[in-house]
Amino acid sequence: xxxxxxxxxxxxxxxxxxxxxxxxxxxxxxxxxxxxxxxxxxxxxxxxxxxxxxxxxxxxxxxxxxxxxxxxxxxxxxxxxxxxxxxxxxxxxxxxxxxxxxxxxxxxxxxxxxxxxxxxxxxxxxxxxxxxxxxxxxxxxxxxxxxxxxxxxxxxxxx
Length: 159
Description:
Layout: H1 8-18, H2 23-38, H3 40-57, H4 66-80, E1 84-90, E2 93-99, H5 110-131, E3 139-147, E4 150-156
Antiparallel strand pairs: 1-2, 2-4, 3-4
């Protein structure tokens, strides 16, 4: 299922639901502060680790099919207010298209925020897939950026 990210009314609705005043502001201040202090590249491993910790705290039930896995992921993402994922499996691994990613309120900070959330999602998805029986050598990496709220990740063997 594809989300129409060109629909500004729809995107405004998601942003209002996903970015409550106070908590979201504090989170963005913390992420901005970290990136400003240590740099965007240097902050990526920490953010990925935070995604892994989220996966450990909110594990998925064991899934027998890709459809069950996608449904379980979407149930957790819905509870977080983080959007939704569509999984496509192929011979080289999986493509995970994450849509309706929470968007930073200020347009100037949207790319930095998207990069931070992508690192978190790499950790989250990677740990969830590993817990489903994935091999330790497989990784999740951002593969394609459709927009700051629509990102595709690739689960694959980097060797």
